[in-house]
Amino acid sequence: MTPHKTVAIIGGGLSGGAVACYLAQQRAPGAILVFEPRAEIGPGLAYGTDDPSHRINVPAAKMSLLPAQESHFVDWIARTNAVSDDAEALAADGQLYVRRSLFGRYVYEHIQPFLQSRRIEHVQDSVASVEKADGGQWSIETFDGRRYEADIVVLATTHPPPAVPDNLHRALASDPRMISDATVMGALSAIEPSARVVIVGTGLTMVDVVASLDRQGHRGQIHAFSRRGLLPRGHAQQAYEPFGEFVRSPPYSTRELLRKVRSTIKDAAKQDIPWQPVIDAVRSQALLFWPQMPVSERAKIVKHLRAYWDVHRFRVAPQLENVIRRRQKSGTLTVRAASLVEAVAGPDAIAITVRSRRTREQETISADYIVVTTGPAHGSVVSMQPHLATLARQGLIAADPFGLGISCNVRGQALAANGDAVPGILIAGPLARGTFGELMGVPQVTNYALSIASEVLEELKSPEFERGSLAGALATSDNNASAVRR
Question: Is this structure's pTM higher than 0.85?
Answer without folding.
Answer: yes
